[in-house]
DNA sequence: CTTTTAGTTCAAAAGTTATTTAACTATAGA
DNA sequence: TCTATAGTTAAATAACTTTTGAACTAAAAG
């Protein structure tokens, strides 16, 4: 396996790990169906857990490249990182 | 969430967990590119681990519905369970 | 400047998954 | 029947992930 293949494999594994969790799938579903960015508190409500745990899941999704976060004042707005899905899991978002 | 949605979510999580592992991705890659069924020993060689560990990974893939196994005498022949990929991850197999 | 709001980080505990080794089952061949 | 081959299973352990609660940072409002 060459280096790009290895990196692709690592990227895939990170993404699949991030997707292999009910809370994180719920977060993605909420984001995808909302159509636009939401703040952490709003998303946190829908996933029924503590804010520190929600923050942990946001980080996991961010590090897998599945969401992106924009900071504005106190609030952080997150949204689906569509490019990653298109590259690694074409067609998946529409099945959510 | 209704029962079908829940079951779909559980199915997805099982699949993503199964895909979130280097050894199992290697097994799927080998199977997909071979174009036809291979026996456990052949697949085991390509994933560089003990036979019991290979067997553990086969089981994980089987239980996620990602491979199917046909028994013939002593040998077991496995192949990609294409329907599952088509349903849950359309387009993914071709990126492997 | 003090307090509230929004969110992150840290460390410990709890839970889950992967690896290892040895024992096991089932079929095939001598 | 005895032995080899192909693979599974079980139990222990190692490695990893998730949850929790408390302490923290940074911006906004009073």
From TrEMBL, chains A, B:
* InterPro entries according to UniProt: ArsR-like_HTH, HTH_ArsR_DNA-bd_dom, HTH_MetalResp_TranReg, WH-like_DNA-bd_sf, WH_DNA-bd_sf
Annotated HTH arsR-type domain residues: 4-96
Keyword Nucleotide-binding belongs to the record = no
SMART domains, per this entry?
A: HTH_ARSR (SM00418)
Carries keyword Transport? no
Q: Which UniProt keywords apply?
A: DNA-binding, Transcription, Transcription regulation
Instruction: Report the GO molecular function annotations.
Output: DNA binding; DNA-binding transcription factor activity
Q: What is this protein called?
A: Helix-turn-helix transcriptional regulator
**The species this protein was found in:** Brevibacillus brevis (Bacillus brevis)
Q: What is the lineage of its organism?
A: Bacteria, Bacillati, Bacillota, Bacilli, Bacillales
């Amino acid at each position: 396996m060459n280096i790009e293949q290895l990196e692709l494999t690592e990227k895939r594994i990170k993404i699949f790990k991030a997707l292999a969790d009910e809370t994180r799938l719920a977060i993605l579903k909420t984001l995808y169906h909302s159509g636009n960015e939401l703040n952490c508190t709003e998303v946190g409500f829908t996933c029924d857990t503590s804010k520190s745990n929600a923050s942990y899941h946001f980080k996991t999704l961010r590090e897998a490249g599945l969401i992106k976060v924009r900071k504005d004042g106190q609030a952080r707005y997150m949204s689906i990182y569509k490019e990653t899905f298109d590259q690694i899991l074409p067609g998946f978002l529409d099945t959510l």
